[in-house]
Design goal:
Blueprint: E1 9-11, H1 17-30, H2 37-57, H3 64-88, H4 94-119, H5 124-148, E2 150-152, H6 160-176, E3 179-182, E4 185-189, H7 190-220
Parallel strand pairs: 1-2
Antiparallel strand pairs: 3-4
Length: 228
């Protein structure tokens, strides 16, 4: 079996996968020729860095939270459209794209969560737990893609696009009130609650995917009988 990451099949089962694919194809058709996938990849990275910076600035100027939403939208555009544009124009660079996209995802996520940790809207330890859980999920996805040639972008119907939307909604909610009550107890920071829920979700996704992939690989490569 070829274990080259370039040979993998993309599998995206997010809630918004259908309309998102149509929107990206519509955008790819109308993207000017002078814009290529590298430009969009760079847009995805820069916008995520700026989203993290906006979270940090929101510590003093809370209306910077609006910029978080704007930069998350731009990140979606750059991060999602770059691959679609390359496939639409039939100028794919599978290994380059796979590697660079995921390096940028790691850098961008660290920057975003770093800004959140400095914003005062979430406890730094919860943010660190969230980053750690994200790293575990990413590592499992990379390993699964390598050995199974299937790149799964979502789990439990939630993928990068759905996560961006939830984060954007949360950022807008912070403008109104960063505190919430749970069953009459609290108040708790909204993003502390959301962060704990996200950690649980990511850990659950890691466990589920690990068990599923281990089971599938075991069935594909059962223990051979030993003959003395």
């Amino acid at each position: 079996m070829n274990t080259d990451a370039a040979a993998h099949v993309r599998e995206y089962g997010g809630l918004l996968a259908g309309p998102e694919k149509k929107a990206l194809l519509w955008l790819a058709y109308r993207t000017p020729r002078w814009i290529n996938s590298d430009h969009l990849t760079l847009l995805g990275l820069v916008s995520m860095l700026l989203a993290g910076l906006s979270f940090w600035v929101a510590n003093r100027y809370r209306y910077a939270l609006i910029l978080v939403v704007v930069f998350l939208a731009l990140n979606w555009l750059g991060d999602s459209l770059d691959g679609t544009l390359a496939r639409y124009r039939k100028c794919q660079r599978p290994r380059y794209g796979y590697y660079v996209d995921h390096v940028i995802d790691l850098i961008g996520t660290a920057a975003l969560l770093g800004g959140l940790a400095l914003s005062g809207y979430a406890h730094p330890l919860i943010v660190l737990a969230l980053l750690t859980a994200f790293a575990f999920v990413e590592a499992e996805v990379f390993l699964a893609t390598h050995v199974q040639q299937v790149f799964r972008l979502s789990c439990f119907k939630v993928g990068p696009t759905e996560l961006r939307i939830l984060l954007a909604i949360g950022a807008l909610c912070l403008l109104r009130n960063p505190w919430v009550l749970l069953a009459g107890k609290g108040p708790f920071l909204l993003f502390d609650v959301g962060g704990v829920v996200a950690v649980i979700g990511l850990v659950s996704a890691f466990v589920y995917s690990s068990v599923r992939n281990t089971r599938d690989l075991y069935r594909a490569e059962p223990i051979a009988r030993e003959f003395s």
